[in-house]
């Protein structure tokens, strides 16, 4: 990867206050767009030199896969929002629309003492956001957070998999709804403490671990990650 451009400082940051940090990823899908991108880049740097609320900026490029990154620090969300509203790069994006890949952005706040930011830290945050995004995509909402009353069971379908949810004194647990003995629905059984009893042949399972407590079932039931987010009960089965 090519060496990044030096950090361009426009305003001396206050080490005692927080600023908005922004990493932008700009991929070009076609080599034919490189001359246009380079030509517009000169004008963009001139614009940034007089942009209100911008503390400083830098850029990094990897020409072989045509990947470009910008790293900037702003006074705050309002300064960045005003910059976006002015759409100073509108002509650039229009000219490159058919040649641009999927752009991504990572933002975070940090004190002025962290200016200039390091590329290592910025890329680490980008990777963490990507991992979190893949995890979020794996969760499926099954209803409101209060879907399952205390001491009760409910059944849901998550990505074509039948899942049971138990509420034990306010703590929620998700596990496979099908008893491994003869595939009866566990959410139709009885919940006593952390033990669920299959309604068909009375096999007992620990809802917190899926372990078999008594037969005739011999195998445990799979358990799943569960969370409450924005008032929604979400389950991840994969």
Topology readout:
Layout: E1 8-9, E2 18-27, H1 34-49, E3 54-62, E4 67-74, H2 77-86, H3 90-96, E5 104-111, H4 119-138, E6 139-144, E7 153-158, E8 161-168, E9 171-176, E10 190-192, E11 195-197, E12 204-206, E13 212-214, E14 223-229, E15 232-236
Antiparallel strand pairs: 1-3, 2-4, 2-5, 3-4, 6-15, 7-8, 8-9, 9-14, 10-11, 11-12, 12-13, 14-15
What would your notes on this structure say?
This protein has 238 residues and is of the alpha+beta class. It has two domains: 8-117, 2-Layer Sandwich (Alpha-Beta Plaits), CATH 3.30.70.100; 142-236, Rieske Iron-sulfur Protein. It is 22% helix and 37% strand. It contains four helices and 15 strands. It has helices spanning 34-49, 77-86, 90-96, 119-138, and strands at 8-9, 18-27, 54-62, 67-74, 104-111, 139-144, 153-158, 161-168, 171-176, 190-192, 195-197, 204-206, 212-214, 223-229, 232-236. The strands form three sheets. The chain has a six-stranded antiparallel beta sheet with strand order 6-15-14-9-8-7. Strands 1-3-4-2-5 form a five-stranded antiparallel beta sheet. The protein has a four-stranded antiparallel beta sheet with strand order 10-11-12-13, with no helix packed on it. The chain is elongated and about 75 Å long. The two termini are 35 Å apart.
Low-confidence stretches: none
Mean pLDDT across all amino acids? 83
Shape designation: elongated
User: Into which percentage range does the β-strand content fall?
Assistant: 35-45%
List keywords for this structure.
Alpha-Beta Plaits, five-stranded antiparallel beta sheet, six-stranded antiparallel beta sheet, 4 helices, 238 residues, Rieske Iron-sulfur Protein, alpha+beta
């Amino acid at each position: 990867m090519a060496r990044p451009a030096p950090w361009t400082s426009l305003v001396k940051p206050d080490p005692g206050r927080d600023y908005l940090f922004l990493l932008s990823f700009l991929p070009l899908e076609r080599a034919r767009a490189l001359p246009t991108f380079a030509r517009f880049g000169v004008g963009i740097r001139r614009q940034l030199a007089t942009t209100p609320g911008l503390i400083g900026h830098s850029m990094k490029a990897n020409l072989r896969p045509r990947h470009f990154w910008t790293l900037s620090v702003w006074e705050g969300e309002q300064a960045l929002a005003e910059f976006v509203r002015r759409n100073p790069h509108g002509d650039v994006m229009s000219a490159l629309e058919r040649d641009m890949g999927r752009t991504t952005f990572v933002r975070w706040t940090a004190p002025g003492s962290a200016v200039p930011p390091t590329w290592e830290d910025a890329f680490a945050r980008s990777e963490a956001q990507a991992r979190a995004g893949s995890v979020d995509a794996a969760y499926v909402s099954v209803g409101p957070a209060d879907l399952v009353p205390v001491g009760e069971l409910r059944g849901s379908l998550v990505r074509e998999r039948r899942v049971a949810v138990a509420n034990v004194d306010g703590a929620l647990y998700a596990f496979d709804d099908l008893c491994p003995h003869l595939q009866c629905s566990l959410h139709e059984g009885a919940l006593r403490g952390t033990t669920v009893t299959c309604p068909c042949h009375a096999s007992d399972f620990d809802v917190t671990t899926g372990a078999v407590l008594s037969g005739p079932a011999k195998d445990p039931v799979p358990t799943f990650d569960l969370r409450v987010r924005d008032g929604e009960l979400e389950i991840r089965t994969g």
